[in-house]
Write a structure and sequence with these properties.
The protein is of the alpha+beta class and 344 residues long. It has three domains: 3-55, no CATH class; 60-154, no CATH class; 174-333, 3-Layer(aba) Sandwich (Glutaredoxin), CATH 3.40.30.10. Helix content is 53%, strand content 11%. It contains 13 helices and nine strands. The protein has helices at residues 11-22, 44-50, 56-85, 90-97, 108-116, 124-154, 194-209, 229-240, 245-255, 260-269, 274-283, 287-300, 321-333; strands at 3-4, 33-37, 40-43, 174-177, 183-189, 214-220, 304-305, 307-310, 313-315. The two termini are 30 Å apart.
């Protein structure tokens, strides 16, 4: 789950992104014109110089669709290959290895328990057959998925489709780790977001495991439904002005204490110059920098927090430890996509 970003973008930008996404045959060097305005031709490269993040979501949406289509193709390919080996049709193969393994009909007691959980006014006897058919379908699909996975486990499948990458600067943001590390992880997050709070222990574990190999960048993305998020982001930056951004950042996620007085109390705990900190926070001195990060997330069409760029590969939503580790390991095998230097 992710906390959703509300009311971003305009219909014009959505239509623009959709139009460009449809032009999948545009040359990779960006030299092919994609627009003509009053006789002036605009190439993809020229467009992206002005709007570097406008197509990121569209391209990732297309990539996800391609990947799903390829996965479905592989599933069918492996089924057909195995059917040929056994001199069967695919349907006969599924009958042999899937349908034959399914249990019989559920007991009447189990069917009635299932019926009680349904939002229906129809009597049990009228929907009993539909319940049985539905449970058969569920069991079949689950058993089929397990069988197909067993075919995957015995096969060698390499998906050669490459994920598109965003080119974004990490300037005006705080980073820790190695500035020239082979992998840069940019997180768009909100201190009040419960999913960001749940994500933080995963990030801590990842940072410890890949010590020296990561450049971790934090982007302020305070969401409008979180009353304390924006001031918390400003407070962390006020602490950063005194060289303690990350100490403050970590404590915010650990304590989840985000009310104004609590933000000031944390400055005392971290032994900051409290007069300077309070002046910074009360005046909104660094609010514009927080807004800049949020505007970047809006332009990128980040749909919620947390979201990530890992060496430019966009992930709209939280990642599990295994998912993040997999992506980082892939990048370590083929480094070379890092972001600009950020404030450390």
């Amino acid at each position: 789950m992710i906390t959703r970003l509300l009311n971003y973008g305009s219909l014009v930008s959505v239509l623009c992104v959709s139009a460009f996404a449809a032009s999948s045959d545009v040359s990779s060097d960006g030299a092919t014109p994609v627009l003509e305005i009053n006789g002036t031709k605009i190439t993809l490269s020229q467009f992206e110089q002005k709007q570097p993040s406008a197509l990121v979501k569209a391209r990732n949406t297309f990539y996800d669709s391609e990947k799903r289509a390829l996965t479905a193709y592989v599933d069918q390919y492996l089924l057909e290959e195995q059917a040929n080996k056994e001199n069967l049709t695919v349907d006969q193969l599924l009958d042999k290895h899937v349908k034959s393994t399914l249990p019989g009909d559920p007991s009447e007691e189990a069917l009635k328990v299932y019926y009680e959980g349904l939002n229906t006014k129809e009597p049990f006897d009228k929907v009993r057959g539909q319940i049985i058919d539905h449970l058969h379908d569920l069991r079949f699909e689950k058993a089929k998925a397990a069988y197909v996975q067993s075919l995957h486990d015995q096969a060698t499948v390499n998906v050669l489709l490459t994920q598109p990458r965003a080119t974004l600067s990490s300037k005006e943001s705080y980073a820790r780790g190695e500035a020239n590390a082979p992998v840069t992880v940019i997180e768009y997050a909100d201190y009040e977001c419960p999913y960001c709070q749940q994500q933080q222990p995963i990030l801590d574990k990842i940072e410890a495991e890949y010590d020296g190999k990561l450049n971790m960048v934090y982007k302020d993305t305070p969401l409008p439904m979180h009353a304390h998020a924006e001031k918390a982001a400003e407070a962390a930056r006020c602490a950063g002005a005194q060289g303690k951004f990350w100490e403050y950042h970590d404590q915010l996620f650990k304590t989840k204490q985000l009310q104004m007085q609590q933000l000031k109390d944390l400055a005392v705990t971290l032994k900051l110059d409290t007069d300077a900190f309070n002046k910074c926070l009360d005046s909104g001195e660094l609010a514009a920098k927080v807004k800049d990060n949020l505007n970047e997330a809006t332009a990128l069409q980040v749909e919620g927090t947390p979201s990530f760029l890992i060496n430019g590969r966009f992930f709209n939503g939280g990642l599990t430890y295994d998912e993040m580790k997999k992506v980082i390991d892939e990048e370590l095998k083929a480094p070379g996509h890092t972001s600009d230097t950020a404030t450390r």
